[in-house]
Amino acid sequence: MDALAPFLEPIDIPLAHLFLDPNNPRFVGSDWTFIPDDIAVSAEAQQEAANRLMAHHDVKKLQLVIEANGFLPIDRVVVRRVDYKKYIVLEGNRRICAAKQINGHSDAGETLAPDIMATLTSIPCLEYTGAEDKNEVAWIFQGLRHISGISEWPAFNKAKLLVDEMDRGGLSFTDVGKRFGLSPFGAAQWVRGFYAFRQAKNETEYGNYIDERMYPYFQEIFGRSSISLKDWLNWDDAKKEFLDQANLNEFVSWFFPVEQESSEEESGPEKEPTAAELSGAWNRRRVSKRDDLRHLSYLITKAPKEWMEFRSGADIESVYSRAILIELEKSFEDEKDIAERLFKYVDETLKLIQNTPFSVLSSEERRSNLFEKLDAIHAVHDGLKKLTNA
């Protein structure tokens, strides 16, 4: 195959002249049948391609980003010409699909700024003019980008970018989330994690040991499943910091169980751990996965005894597994208690009805009331029989 660069020519194309690729490599399975160009540009094929992209490839998130920033030509869309006014997208189908969903108004009904809409009038593209097979070349371009192309940013760098943008523009979580395709809650989780990481690095006794590897754990503290852990650390949203310094120090210590080599001849102040000791400590950390923080939050809420055992040095997997087992056994016992109470009350009710003197039912009002309740019991009886026989 020849080099690609000589066959890519810059061209600005109206959005209406760009067509999604129904043969997009994202769609192709083992039973795929190639769709020829004359059918590919039809309204039906275009709608089907758009539906598939929107259903499975986060087009809505990309749409929100474009509505907030405009269509950014950071990476040009790559196309091939079908005829004078029609171009099929080889690389950039998600972006073009998202752009075509924008109608001048946000989901909230707000009118998009004219300068945002102006970026959608004409799209900067690169037209592929080579003779390579039209189906194969789409795979080549997408492979270059998605397999060996853009390198993923570390989580810490992403969080810092959000914080910098908020500080620079006075943005809310909603605003910065729209700009980068995040929900307000998601943006808040990234940003709060950044401030928590910075506090731990600057204010705890383990600060010199902390590096960006630990950021994802701070981010997880602000997830929906770790609320109890966040409360244990006493997060203050206004101050952007944890107020319980002792608990914060303890939390960080779980990640750096340093075992320094000691010598009877050594005396004086304790030495800083070596790089090798720190690396070994991180590999032995008591909280090895982000999911472990959710387990800790469960222990705080549901199993205080096992929570204290973990804090005293017990392995998180063993105490969490035991806590879950105890909870299951408790649920089983609760079910047994409910069943026993049910049969007890039914037996007592039957005896009470059988032993009730007729004189008690001499009143028409009482008889009517009793028969209504018996009818209700009969209806429940019929419903249960249908349910158990289904």
Keywords:
single chain; 390 residues; alpha/beta; extended; 5-stranded mixed sheet
Contiguous helical run count: 17
Taking the alpha carbons of the first and last residues, their distance comes to 64 Å
Low-confidence stretches: none
> Mean of residue pLDDT?
85
Strand residue content: 5-15%
What fraction, in percent, of the residue positions are helical?
A: 55-70%
- Strand tally: 7
**What's the main sheet like?**
5 strands, mixed
Q: What is the structural class? A: alpha/beta
Output the radius of gyration.
32 Å
Order of helices and strands: EEHHHEEHHEHHHHHHEEHHHHHH
What general form does the structure show? extended
Strand order of the largest sheet: 1-5-3-4-2
What does this structure look like?
The protein contains 17 helices and seven strands. α3 packs across α4 (93-101), α3 packs across α8 (173-180) and α14 (291-302) packs across α15. The mean pLDDT is 85. The protein is of the alpha/beta class and 390 residues long. The strands form two sheets. The chain has a five-stranded mixed β-sheet with strand order 1-5-3-4-2. Strands 6-7 form a two-stranded antiparallel sheet. Helix content is 55%, strand content 8%. β6 (235-236) and β7 form a beta hairpin. The chain is extended.
Layout: helices, strands, pairs:
Blueprint (H helix, E strand, L loop, with lengths): L7 E7 L3 E2 L17 H4 L2 H14 L2 H11 L7 E7 L2 E6 L1 H9 L12 H5 L3 E7 L5 H13 L8 H15 L3 H8 L3 H20 L11 H7 L5 H7 L1 E2 L4 E2 L2 H9 L21 H9 L7 H12 L1 H8 L4 H39 L9 H26 L1
Parallel strand pairs: 2-4, 3-5
Antiparallel strand pairs: 1-5, 3-4, 6-7
